[in-house]
Design goal:
heterodimer; A: about 280 residues; mainly alpha; MetI-like fold; 11 helices; about 75% helix; B: about 300 residues; about 80% helix; about 0% strand; globular
């Protein structure tokens, strides 16, 4: 009797502990958002979005960083998306199981686990120095493209795998070649799924700070990039720069910068979710 | 004629796609070559023994010393703190979501936890430095403004969703029959979970834990912002320390000229970081494969 009671008590205990642990994550997320919005919301204004950084905190804005982020992420997408989709098509549609494609698969899984700061060292050693791209927009974009490539490949493969094989067979039966089948039948169906994956991969790239600092992106840039060879900064680096200063006013700027960054991420994730829902049939 | 041309195009396209896939192997090779070249140059001037076992790290000072242990110690300390949050809390969350929670709760909670994993790390750094540290200072009077405790705890929250979602997958992978057999013998939910489901999912859960350690070791911005950038070999979580990742960022922020010994240290430290995370990822993958085979 007492034993049964004890077991029931323990059962409730585990249930309660599980709930508490789940709540921990949610409560911290709430605290984080509350802290940042209460610190930074007052600084958000049109001026803040359109001003260049300044030594005087109240005049400083994020225009250079915002423009840098748009430049870098656009070129990251231009590089990573075709390469990633190409690799995914090869692995899913062409490669025979085992052997070489198994090596590539294991390799991609491992690359996904490499710390982002290591990609920064790759970018510094290979792109900035050896290929002499300098600390430019294109060097930053290429570094981030390599960083998100595994994610792009994995999500594209998933989208391709979801396409029904009967679609391919019907196309072959009508005499289409392999590439005609992929281009006209498989890709259009897989596209929404791929797009969702791309947006999520890019939203990861937007938040990356360490690899770009490592390749030597500047922390104080009072101009917007003029082209792909321009020096640049990005939103997270601007936030980092402001967090590293002792003055209260700069910390407020950092919080306001974070709000803009989070809004950008929210918009991208919303778009991804919308695409997924809309084309799920 | 036309079909011959078509064939050539088809082959060309296949080659192109193959090249895209092959690029990923080149990325790995590129990482290895870049790290190796600079690390070997570094070891021409500093013996590997001094690097790996030395206890003083002052490569940027006049009195240079290249013992990496303070950075390794700082990394391990922060990772340990992070794992003591993310391990238990992540596993309990997974148990709750997989075994106890009604599906309605699960549908709401899981995406919210994913948000936690998608927050940029620089944001967590801000949160650790300006919210968690001041809060902790009210509880622990001797706590320094920069310390290992606060970024460790925040990092634990950051990797919690990863631990919980991978562990939940492992718990889900355990066949229903095992649970039903336990219930049929009169076991409570808690007894079933602890004595039947958890042991059955152990390799999958360990895989999740090890991957989380690897993430913690490689995490950069939280520690760069909130831990203090002072290499110090200590187990005291209340004082400033520096991790391997934070050191790489610290040097990158200054203007250390290319080709100097100080410049090469970041590649040597990077090599150490790469090798340790790579080994952890391999073990984690191996455990996950084993788990999958058990219930295939």
């Amino acid at each position: 009797m007492t034993r049964r009671l004890r077991n029931q008590l323990l059962d409730h205990l585990l249930h309660g502990a599980g709930m508490a642990a789940t709540l921990l994550g949610l409560v911290v997320l709430g605290a984080l958002l509350f802290d940042i919005f209460s610190d930074g919301l007052g600084r958000i204004s049109w001026d803040f979005l359109t001003s260049f950084p300044s030594r005087r905190a109240e005049n400083a804005g994020i225009y250079a960083a915002l423009a840098g982020t748009v430049w870098v992420i656009s070129f990251t997408a231009l590089l990573a998306v075709p390469l990633g989709i190409g690799a995914a098509i090869f692995l899913e549609e062409y490669a025979a199981r085992g052997g070489w494609s198994r090596v590539i698969e294991i390799n991609i899984a491992n690359l996904a686990g490499v710390p982002s700061v290591i990609y920064g060292l790759l970018g510094l050693g290979l792109l900035v120095r050896t290929l002499a791209l300098g600390r430019s927009v294109i060097a930053g974009a290429a570094t981030l493209a390599l960083l998100v490539l595994p994610v792009v490949i994995l999500s594209s493969r998933e989208a391709l795998r979801a396409v029904s094989p009967s679609l391919r067979e019907a196309s072959y039966a009508l005499g289409a070649t392999k590439w005609q089948t992929i281009w006209h039948q498989v890709l259009p169906v897989a596209l929404p799924g791929m797009l969702t994956g791309m947006i999520l991969a890019l939203s990861r790239a937007i938040g990356e700070t360490a690899p770009l600092i490592t390749i030597g992106a500047l922390t104080y840039v009072p101009f917007a990039p003029a082209g792909i060879w321009s020096p640049f900064t990005v939103l997270p680096i601007q936030v980092f720069n402001w967090v590293s200063r002792p003055q209260e006013a700069f910390l407020e700027n950092a919080a306001a910068g974070i709000i803009v960054l989070l809004a950008l991420l929210l918009a991208m994730n919303g778009a991804a979710a919308w695409l997924r829902d809309r084309f799920q049939q | 004629m036309a079909s011959e041309r078509r064939d050539r195009i088809e082959r060309l396209i296949e080659r192109g796609l193959q090249a895209c896939a092959g690029l990923s192997v080149l990325v790995t090779a590129g990482i290895l070559v870049v790290l190796l070249v600079e690390t070997l140059q570094f070891f021409r001037e500093v013996s590997p023994f001094e690097f790996l076992f030395g206890t003083v790290w002052t490569p940027l000072f006049l009195q240079k010393s290249f013992g990496v242990l303070p950075l390794v110690g700082g990394t391990l300390l922060v990772s340990f703190i992070a794992m003591s949050v993310a391990g238990p809390a992540g596993l309990l969350t997974a148990i709750y979501l997989s075994e106890y929670a009604p599906s309605r709760v699960r549908r709401v909670v899981k995406p919210v936890l994913e948000v936690l994993a998608g927050v940029p790390t620089v944001v967590y750094g801000y949160f650790a430095l300006l919210f968690v540290t001041p809060l902790l200072q009210q509880l622990i009077p001797g706590l320094s403004g920069f310390n290992a405790l606060s970024p460790g705890l925040v990092m634990g929250i950051m990797i919690l969703p990863m631990v919980s979602s991978l562990s939940e997958d492992a718990l889900h992978g355990v066949p229903r029959g095992l649970r039903e057999a336990a219930y049929a013998l009169g076991a409570t939910k808690m007894q079933t979970t602890v004595r039947v489901v958890l042991p059955a999912a152990l390799s999958g859960i360990s895989a999740a834990g090890i991957l989380a350690v690897s993430r913690a070791i490689g995490e950069t911005m939280i520690v760069t912002i909130a831990a203090g950038q002072q290499p110090r070999l200590t187990a005291n979580p209340l004082v400033p320390i520096e991790t391997m990742t934070a050191y790489i960022v610290q040097v990158s922020l200054g203007d250390t000229p290319t080709g100097t010994l100080a410049y090469r240290t970041i590649f040597a430290v990077g090599m150490l970081l790469f090798v340790s995370t790579f080994l952890l990822n391999l073990v984690s993958n191996w455990l996950r494969e084993r788990f999958r085979e058990e219930y295939a």
